[in-house]
Design a protein that fits this description.
This protein has about 350 residues and is an alpha/beta fold. The chain is built from ten helices and 14 strands. The mean pLDDT is about 95. Keywords: Hydrolase.
Length: about 350
């Protein structure tokens, strides 16, 4: 687990505030504070934990501010390491919170469901993905479903200006990692807050939810979003401030590397389908991963399956794979995927 770095003054009224994620291999999330003429604004808030909250409070203090002076918080996306402290921020300030409408819709849907309903939904997905009975039994014994984030106050649409008087901070919609993921372009400072969209070394997770959904194309959206940030004015000169790892320059080059990784993965999956119809579990369990499939914990397998599902969906959109069904457990048909010949017919 990486060490949590110190608070840092990046310059021009921008600070990085590393907020720890206890027990998580990511180690921490970078929360950023930007000063304005009428009070500071945060980019994200961090994980919901006492240690995380204490780090955020101390970080804000080192910038010369207190929590009650925070004007607002822009949330790059709904994941808990970015939104977990929204509730505590509201308790200690009058700060607004803003997010893209697509991710607000996700938080509202999660908030409307009970913990049991959320756990049942994941179990149903694992079943339809073809996961073996022992994995389903293990999940039902310990579902470990995270609480949903607090629903933000304000909608921040693509291209909108953040309420930060004295600065020109604008939202850049970059769907893929989540439906409403936002990057933030500080045009008057030459900075790009990339959230989890572009990271300097690791490749952000892109998943399909539900796993068997025939709708949407999150990976396709993600690849188009990589191209979009590569075309921002002066993109190769922008200083990128990601939520994890280290800041960097060269957005187009890094976006190209991330895109190439996913194109290689698409080719690997298409090749596996050449062996015959396969369930999502069949494909996912046969792919190479950073950690061997046999050593993965169940929730890591679920994340891997969601990523594989997103790649299969893109292959469908590109007419390189087709979805079929066969008898499955109970009465539900089990989705399978097959390779498609150049003629557009299943191989």
């Amino acid at each position: 687990m990486p060490d949590v770095p110190p608070v840092e003054d990046i310059g021009d009224g921008v600070w990085s505030l590393p907020v720890p994620i206890p027990g998580n291999p990511l180690g921490f999330t970078y929360v950023y504070l930007l000063t304005g003429s009428e009070g500071p604004v945060l980019v994200d808030t961090g994980w919901n934990h006492d240690e995380s909250w204490d780090a955020l409070v101390e970080g804000v203090k080192q910038t010369g501010h207190t929590m009650d002076q925070i004007r607002g918080a822009v949330l790059t996306h709904f994941h808990p390491d970015h939104t977990g402290l929204v509730g505590r921020l509201r308790e200690h300030s009058d700060a607004w919170t803003a997010m893209h409408p697509a991710d607000i819709a996700v938080t509202e849907r999660l908030a409307a469901a009970s913990e049991t309903e959320r756990a049942d939904s994941i179990a149903d997905q694992l079943l339809l993905a073809g996961f073996p009975a022992e994995d389903l039994d293990a999940f039902r014994a310990d579902p470990h479903v995270l609480a949903p984030p607090a629903v933000p106050d304000l909608v921040l649409a693509d291209g909108a200006t953040v309420d930060l008087p004295g600065r020109d901070l604008r939202a850049v919609w970059t769907p893929g990692h989540t439906p409403g993921h936002l990057c933030l372009h500080l045009a008057d400072g030459g900075l790009l807050f990339t959230g989890d969209h572009v990271l300097p070394r690791i490749t952000p997770h892109v998943g399909q939810f539900p796993l068997d959904s025939p709708d949407g194309d999150p990976l396709g959206d993600f690849l188009r979003s990589q191209d979009r940030v590569s075309r921002l004015p002066g993109a190769d000169r922008l200083l990128c401030l990601p939520s994890h790892e280290t800041r960097f320059r060269g957005t187009p080059a890094r976006a190209g590397e991330i895109t190439a990784h996913h194109e290689e993965r698409l080719d690997q999956i298409a090749a596996l389908l050449g062996d015959g119809p396969a369930t999502l579990w069949d494909v996912t369990s046969r792919l190479p991963w950073r950690r061997s499939w046999s050593d993965m914990r169940l929730m890591a397998r679920h994340m891997a399956a969601s990523e594989t599902a997103a790649h299969l969906r893109t292959l469908e959109e590109r007419r390189r794979a087709a979805r079929t069904t066969s008898p499955g457990p109970g009465t539900a048909p089990l989705p399978r995927w097959v390779a498609v010949r150049s003629s557009g017919r299943p191989a």
